[in-house]
Design brief:
This protein has one domain (about 5-45). The chain contains two helices and no strands. It has helices spanning about 5-30, 40-45. F-type ATPases have 2 components, CF(1) - the catalytic core - and CF(0) - the membrane proton channel. It is found in: Mitochondrion membrane.
């Protein structure tokens, strides 16, 4: 395999960086959190943990 010039390595790095950023943004913005109603909030039980160190 012939050696790659530094500009080709840099363009490859830029390409992979852009793909990584776009992929992360697509995953982040595709997630839609569900909004809890007040009845659902009251059903959640709080568990108190007493840590004895």
């Amino acid at each position: 395999m012939p050696q790659m010039s530094p500009l080709m390595w840099f363009s490859l790095f830029i390409m992979f960086s852009i793909v990584l950023i776009l992929f992360n943004q697509m995953n982040f913005f595709s997630f839609k959190p569900t909004i809890m109603k007040s009845e659902e909030k009251s059903q959640i039980k709080n568990k108190n943990f007493n840590w004895k160190w």
